[in-house]
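Follow-up to my earlier ticket, as requested here are the two runs.
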Amino acid sequence: MQETAPDDDLLELLDEPEHADSEHRQHDRPWRILIVDDDGDVHKATELAMQGLTVEGQPLVFLHASSAAQARQLLASEDDLAVVLLDVVMESEDAGLQLVRHIRDELRLNAVRIVLRTGQPGYAPEIETVQAYDINDYKTKSELTRTRLYTVLTAAVRSYRQICALEANRRGLEMIVESSTSLSRMRGLSRFAEGVVTQLCALLGILPEGLVCAQFNGDTGDEVRIVAAAGQYSGLIDRPLALVKIPAVRDRLERCLREQQSFYDDGTVLYFGLGQGRAMAALVDVGRQLDELEQQLLRAFCSNIAVGFENVLLYSQLLDQAYNDPLLRLPNRNRFVELLDQNLKDPTGVTLALIDIDDFSDINDAFGQHFGDQVLQAVVQRMSEMLGLSTAMARVGADTFGVLGEHAKVCPETVSAVFAEPFVVSGERLQLSATTGLVRLGESTAVGSELLLDAQIALKRAKQHQRGSSQYFSAAMGSDARERFKLLKGLRTGFEESQLFVVYQPQVDLGTGHAIGAEALLRWRTVDGRFIPPDQFIPLAEQSGLIIPIGEFVMRTACAQLRRMQGLGHADFRMAVNVSMAQFRHPGFIDMLARSLRDGGVAGQSIELEITESMAMEDAELVRRVLAEIKQLGFSVAIDDFGTGFSSLSQLRQLQVDRLKIDRAFVQEAQTSTAGSTIAQMVVNLGRGLGLTVIAEGIETEAQRDYLVGLGCHEGQGWLFARPMPAADLEGWMKR
């Protein structure tokens, strides 16, 4: 029997496991080995020595470079190298070592294994070289016999494969983490499932191919969809499992979900239980029977990954709630803004409408919220029928719908038709109406939420015109609304930067001409010196709620000035301050008045609060209650602009006011108009009859004063006596 060389025995020992495992390996992906050496014989000898041998069941393919420079060019286009066999001395003494630095530091190829081969060890001492460079083996060319070279390559390839598996595992984990913050439900679930694919394949040492994940939707009871697939099954993504034409795939996944367990026979199928009737299943064609250790690893993997799937599904539900209305099963405002942005890519012929159901709160108050929900569902059903499938709908408010579609469908006529016939809800016949604001996308430069703002502006204009009407948005409307917004923004800034201040217009006894007090009036002067009229900014302050801090500022300033006037010897001086309905409704209004009196060091009897007649009639019960508390603090009360509203004598008595103030319009018309004269006379007579003091504003001439004195009017203010003035000027005026 012929004796076998020791090297040959070692070669057979190394090669034997590969044959046992080769039937499970793919032979179409060889290991790629780069030889870098300036000696052509080395290239030929290496390739000849490895001819016919396999590593890990795969053949070897050799690439060649005769210099470090040539290797750099080749590496620029090759990123799938397993091993580099590298000579040290080539065009320079350290050309090979510099190539190592290039591979590791510049190309960032950390997985490729580098075996340094040298015929001149003196140029690169082994210990120092291993310490200084990231290489994986160091051999002299003389010791690399056929068997030793095979041993080195096998160890390097195995190391390379393990590093690649770890890297694939890391990428899978990164995808799973990334999916937890994904903004789209299907995208999030799909990316998470892709991460599971990559990680599973890394665990099993196979390429990420032939794996399918399916979601079981517990809400519908029988819906199973493919949410991730790779390799030959990639075309099945997002398809219902029942429609999959591959029986082996469909049957195994259905069995896994039905029996709620993993199977390792006839292909590997993994079960992920998620609770509440939901589950995930993953099928992977491993190509072999898994051993017990691998099955244990996969069981642990499934248990851990199930938590991740649960989190992704929970996140998906949160996204549903963030972008969909659960009651009406319509997109909500957030999703509708996205739809608007998508349609702006081709806005021609598209109209946006905001449809607001008139007086819907009355329905909720009369019949209850459950009935109101049914009404909304009935409205949505009829709108869907009449607007068609090509029209997008969303719920953008409690009783407001956004509609997006072609001009012919989304128009006032269609909206009117929707609400023309009564709605029958729980046996009740309801005749509803809706007010609509519309925007033609092709005529607007706005985007997304700005378009909704334009539609809201048109809707508000329609409501001001007539309930149940429709109004298209125009550039003029937008300009007005944006000017108001700009003014409000400037008002906020102006208040914070002390651009608002108080002036005082004296009030006199018409009979004697003596000053009895002053009205505190708010003014706004911008940084560039412009004065903004009060009738422009005060309504904005009331609508925005800014009147609350501004009103407190006026009250405290007026109290401080009143204290100063009393200190100057004007003991009976009275300060009048205007208040608004927004202040009356604020729960802290009375406390604010009490603080202002206390901090200012004045008594309530020296201050008069002025409210308008229309305000007094708007919510008579509230006004009566608040006025009663005001009276307890000692304040007197005047009704401003009297004669412009519709108050009754009985209401006037219940309010327990102290003064009636004749509006300036009636003062101006008193001598030139019969109507003006009549109203002025009526107010004076009413006031005197109720025992109230009557004061007129806007007196500009002696003739007007004489006329009012003749009517019996007690007090007055106006330019005839003094214009509104700063505090210092008021003090000087009082001296004179």
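Run two:
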Amino acid sequence: MKGKEIEPSLWLDRLRETEFWKTSKKVTFFLYAIFGVAFYLLLIGNVLPMQYELKEGSISPNTITAPATIIDEAATQKAKERAAQGVPPVFTKDDKVTNDQIGQIDHFFSEVRSILSEKSLNETEKKNRMKEIVGGKEEKLSEEFFGKLVRTPVDDLTEIRVGTREIVAEIMGDGVKEAELAEKTRIVEQKFATLSPHSRDLVQKLAKFYIIPNEFPDAPKTKALQEAAMNNADLVKIEQGQNIVTKGEKITADQYEKLKKFKILSSTNLWGSYIGLALLLVVVLIFFYLFIGRFHPSVAHDNFKIIMLFLVLTICMTGMKLIAIGQNLDEWSILGYLSPAALGGMLVTLLLNVELGFLCIVYLSIVTSMFFSGEGHQLFDFRFGLVALMGGVVSAFSLSGVKRRSSVLYAGIFGSIASVVTIMALFFIFPAEGWSTIWRSLTLGLVGSIFCSILTIGFLPGFESLFGILSPLRLLELSNPNHPLLKKLLYDAPGTYHHSVIVGNLAESGAEAIGANGLLARVGAYYHDLGKTKRPQFFIENQIGKENPHDKISPNLSKTIIISHTRDGVEMLKQYRIPEPIQDIAAQHHGTTLIKYFYFKALEATDGMNVIEEDYRYPGPKPQFKEAAIVGIADCVEAAVRSVAKPTPSRIEGVIKKIIQQRLEDGQFDECDLTIKELDLITQAMCATLQGIFHNRIEYPEGPTLTGKGAKQH
């Protein structure tokens, strides 16, 4: 049981005791930066797409699929152009043209009537005059037409005019396009079966002459419809997982462009991906910094706890990186269900607290989605992240308030059950291809959290020792009576050992009454008087049947010996690398209280000359946290109640209240956050505990002494 046998390198302890390294904001930012770079390097390979050395026209050595769904812009543009081309031009009918043609017909017949009524004109002159009416378009009307018109009786002109008007108005009223003109004029030949052959021929020729296009292309409306058709055209997508190029296929220009878009070619610039991941990690680290600073200032102001937190995350991410290597195998594309995210949640919960454990689980779940996104050809595969989140949260929650090391394994089992249920739910929502995939996934989910719990049990002692963290499991180990220091206390100072056990019970009950850490208070009480093992005979609880050595020395020397037990205890605890909270309880449980017995003895011996009260006070510091103050109260209460002649409940309560009142008036609680209400609860809890220890016992009467065979041996 030599110190050197258990003492590792003390460099971290010395560094931890340096206030600059422990609390400096510069060191904090440096740590965030260092671990941010580590996280970046671990993630970058999984964020960047796999690249190939390919050229247009070369033969592809692999089948390359689309890593994500994107829009094929070239194909989409062609589809839009086809949609626009499929829109027929829009025509607008101009009724003014129709009215103008009807007016020209009326004018024509008015002039013809006038020409035919002039007796002085011969037939040739009349034809020439009629040709002038049509304004140079007489070539469209045959010579035969004008010959028939000249010989037409004036009385028949009205019938011919009306017929011409009707057919022109009817046909042009329906609209006539340039391309439809020939077809529309043929309709004229099917009309006017009731007219005489002479009149019908004139009507048909005139109608064909006066029917002209009155529907014209409307460019703005046509363009608007084409734009609408282009906007409504379906986008052509390259679907995620779709083959871009097949193995052994010659790469075309179109395929080469698609490979460039997906940044699959080795010549492609990936600065965007580098910057994107850096920004993502900056946001995450800022959130960590703000969350920890706001809700857990004790961690935020301790750089060694920050190192431990980020180291846990780095270990988990490294494990994911190693597991993700096997995911490239087709039959093991579901290895993401084996993600060690739960390891981070359980370790942080045990080493720090459950809230930070949940925070780490959320982060590691996101990272899991990134590490194991290979099968989904995307940045995040939510399946693995969701399973990691559920399994990790359940595992971490199961460890809240843990008091047995076996509970870590149970937490892993609970987390595995949560993972399996989540995987089953995912397969119900998204059916898998084949039962073999389902069974392999369920097996990995079942094994994942259990394996994390085993790793937690393995890593935990190392973190506790390296960073001096006092986890619940570490406290349980320290409370083991077989611990070397407790055995030393038992052998060297048995009275102090018994006193410490009772103080532990009192302190635990008092701490639990106000919601403090009862386990820490109890274990701290076990070690609070360890320094008395250096000179056990100078402390009254170890002087059973022995002479008191203080009777032979001066009060000043006695005071020095008594005070030194706190310093000696801290030194021994440091030598055995007992975590700082236990050391603090040993140093603070007396605070700066006055050693009244030797102070008054010194006053009596010197008539008050040259006796300074401060010299007879413990050096402190005063209790800095509730558990240290409670151990100090319990320490004083146990000694005081032991000296009470008949410790009735009312007397016990009176003693406790008196001790607490004296310490309160002496300012011993000024630097911890104990309230008056909490002190009352502590009093009640300690009273109940002491009543169980000092309960009334029955005095058995002495009976007649039996002799012979019937006598019992007691």
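The only thing I checked on run two: The first strand starts at residue 64 and ends at 65. Let me know what else you need.
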